[in-house]
């Protein structure tokens, strides 16, 4: 049976207790740190993730959590920088004509 994956953002995480919540359009989903990829460090607020869901005592729990974008701030900064370079190059090419 194929397992559906959902997407969301880490809404909150408590490192002392080892759990947090992922915000989705359907609502918040509980996760435990043991279901998060440990080699990439602790989850960060607003970090995009995809995950599968299982029912746990009448509530939903995220499992098989994977990061979609491990460093959203750096990615956004890189995208802005690349966009600015493209605009600058285009403007300079217009002056050279």
From TrEMBL:
List the source organism.
Acinetobacter venetianus
Q: What is this protein called?
A: Cold-shock DNA-binding domain protein
Q: Which PANTHER family match?
A: CALCIUM-REGULATED HEAT STABLE PROTEIN CRHSP-24-RELATED, COLD SHOCK DOMAIN-CONTAINING PROTEIN CG9705
> Which UniProt keywords are present, listed alphabetically?
DNA-binding, Phosphoprotein
In the record, biological process GO terms are: regulation of mRNA stability
**GO cellular component, as recorded:** cytosol
Q: Which InterPro entries match?
A: Ca-reg_mRNA-binding_domain (IPR052069), CSD (IPR011129), CSP_DNA-bd (IPR002059), NA-bd_OB-fold (IPR012340)
CDD domains in the cross-refs: CSP_CDS
**Residues covered by the CSD domain:** 5-67
